[in-house]
Amino acid sequence: MGIVQKYLSKISGPLLDRIDIQIEVVPVPFKELADARRSERSENIRDRVIQAREIQTSRYSGLPGVYCNAQIPSKKLQEYCRIDDTGMTLMKNAMERLGLSARTYDRILKVSRTIADLEGSPNIKVEHLAEAINYRSLDKGTWGM
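The structure corresponding to this sequence follows.
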C-alpha cells in the first residue's frame, strides 16, 4: 500500500461523503505546458460562472435560504435535479461499482446540476453526470497510483 493510500484509508467515509469534488492533481508534463494552443480565457470562465449563479438564484427564488445548487434540500433534489433513464442507469452502475452512499448520490446530482448550469443546459445530461461522477476520485481508491 502506497503512502497516499495509507493516509487516505485513515479518512472516514462519512467525512469523504461531505466533500463534493475530489480531484487528484498530478504534475503537468512539459509537453502540455509548452503547448501553444489557446485555452479558455479567464474572463469567459468568469462570465459563465456569473451566468450560472444567476440561473441558480432565479431557480431557487421561492426557497428561503437556498441560493445555489449546493444548498438544495434532499427533499427537493428530484424536483431540481431530474435525470433521464440513461442517467439513472449510469448512476445505478456508479453507486454499485463504487459503493457510494446516499449522501454521495445527492452530491453527484448537485454537482451535475451545476455543470449543466455552466453549460447553459436546462437539463442534466448523461455527460454532466459522468463528469460529476469522475470528480469523486477518492471514492474510486485510485489516488497516487
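Residues 48 and 118 are 6 Å apart (CA to CA).
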